[in-house]
Structure of DNA ligase:
Amino acid sequence: MAGKKSAFEFMMGNARKGSSKEKGCPSASLAEKAKEVIKESVKETIKEEADEKMEDISVMDIDVKMEDKKVITSSTTDSVAPSTKEAKRKGRPPASSVAKAKQVVKESETATIKEEVDAKMEEKKVVASTAAEAVVLLTKKETDFDPEAAAFWKPGQPVPFLFLASALDIISDESGRLAMTNILCNVFRTVIATTPKDLLAVVTLSANRIAPAHEGVELGIGDAAIVRVLTEAYGRKADQIKAQMKTLGDLGLVAKASRTSQRTMFKSQPLTCAKVLDTFREIAKDSGNQSQDRKRGRMKALLVAATECEPLYLVRLLQSKLRIGLAEKTVLAALAHAAVLSEVPRVPANQLTARLEEAEEIMKETYSVLPIYEKIISAILEHGIRKLPEVCNFTLGIPVGPMLAKPTTGVSEVLNKFQDMEFSCEYKYDGERAQVHYLQGGTIEIYSRNAEHNTGKFPDIVAAMPRCMKTGTETYVLDCEVVAYDREKNKILPFQVLSTRARKGVVLSDIKIQVCLFAFDLLYLNGRPLLKEQLNVRRELLYSSFQEIPGEFQFATAKNSNDLEEIQKFLEDAINDSCEGLIVKTLSKDATYEPAKRSNNWLKLKKDYMNTGGGDSLDLVPIGAFYGRGKRVGVYGAFLLACYDEDREEFQSICKIGTGFTEAVLEERSVTLKNHVIPQPRSYYRYGETIGVDVWFEDVEVWEVKAADLSISPVHRAAVGLVDPNKGISLRFPRLMRLREDKTPVEATSAQQVAEMYRAQKINHGHGGDADDDDD
Ligand SMILES: Nc1ncnc2c1ncn2[C@@H]1O[C@H](COP(=O)(O)OP(=O)(O)OP(=O)(O)O)[C@@H](O)[C@H]1O
Ligand SMILES: [Mg+2]
Ligand SMILES: [Mg+2]
């Protein structure tokens, strides 16, 4: 990107001219102090400006302006209003009313005055000279924010890592997607306005990535290695560090504390975002002889140079866990906002809301077909966000976010939802999602639901692919489900069997568990993306380009029918054939492939929804546990589970669970989670105070759980505010089904989904006449 300077012209308009701001080094002054200082100076400015204004703006002017703008009248303005009106009538302001009006001006939060002052401030530039000061500016509303002011480095110079770390630090105090988006948007705009070539590094680090997911570049640094680096970097004993880890619960905090208590002999060069990301990549890519030593050496160099809150975020980034409740979705939204707000000429105020919404949507869609920040960011800087869909397209070899299905409670609901639509029912196989990319020259990549490389797990599929292609089929992307398969009995095996296969580096000749690939969609064929085609077209191409090999590669069994009884029968067949149920899909209208979307055009129909009345299973995160008693001494007796609220970016407790565990599973989960005990719940956990858990865990894994039903709860916080303003929802009689290794905690069932399930259940019960009294 460096060679493309002129390409940035699009956004850089005036920003490139640079300014002669005085910049200092980030000092260690407390954020609080700085906040005060800036508040004072802003107040001063406003006061001065307002006083000056008063000399030439007549009271009448103010009155008129205030009326124009429908100013929110505070009690002061109320009391003053009559006298200003009176003055207006008389044509000349009396002295006392001028004084009062001055007060109005100073005290009321009128848009009028603030705008004028803001405009002035922009000319004068309240400029941050330290990270602590920058942080205060970053909390300003997007629309009031001056992107150049928050930079305490010169335009064109590398963005200091301290800038990002400080921003992450204030984000950690926020809960709520909007506030986080706002701060992060301001961060990105600052970078765009000063050093756009660092935007990629800043965004990538904010998203807690070092490379796109599908590249499979992982830092893979264990806590033991970090402890050792801390001893070396900060001259502390490993025992001390481990002890402190127990009280602070987070190696990042230990690093920060170590740094603060250490006397620095000399001042290192400040860290930059680009340097940090580069070093992370070097660490990830290094392998082989003595690579561990080299990795530690690199980490040490970073930690030695780190100051203030930098060690905290360096360590957490190294652990690939920021722990501030910032989801990638927010990073994308913030980037979208930043792109719009950095446009030159500026987007007119009356169009802004619509443009921001549009941009968020564009960003989400683009990222779902091309999850590569490098491409997205260079396209934004060069062409603006509106051009993204044109420039950043589906690309063979890069995984598309898988389309997802909505749960339904029975065939009649399906028929209801798909009235007057052509649709098709397919067997719903219970295995693992696989997106198979066949590249020019025969290279094959298999991606998981999470866009992770799964090629090494399925060498047998790789070997089978060429045999199921018809002549003329050259490049393609298939959407499939892999299931374990007994080729002698011609039978699909349960999911549990599949999950015993090793995850990486499987050798063809060692394979004991055979799999069959069930293909249900074709997203790309011979150079042509098919995402925008209707399902019937995609399916025809699928059938005509591939041939089945029984037990190895088959098409998902499908039936096009809209007869209730026929579908019911097909569902029974699916269950008898060891499937979970059906997925019902629109066929010829509203039937495009919607990447990464839980679409209304795919409905899942599982047999057990109807029998138990419990609806779909949920994927939940264990955030705490209760000590075991009796037979369960030494392991945990029960766990506290949470769903994930995507808007508030928090985990909300939904139930206590102690059922569905075999002894072995309980032991396994207990052992794993013991390594993730934290002394305090995370700031982004919500739970009733009366729950009384014995230990808290980090949010690290996802469990699939089934329940009898959902009910309103005074204790749990799931979906609070969505169904009941103050109460949450809880699960009744939850039992563990399995560990979901293909989901990360933020992919757990969302609060919104919990609310939907609760409502669907009510409707269902209403129809069935067996309404659950507990729910009302
Ligand atoms: N014919 C099919 N069409 C589409 N998906 C299928 C099909 N057969 C099996 N699947 C699998 O079913 C999944 C969707 O239903 P499932 O209830 O298993 O979702 P999940 O993985 O639990 O995720 P979530 O609950 O978040 O939707 C798909 O992601 C896919 O892996
Ligand atoms: Mg599944
Ligand atoms: Mg599910």
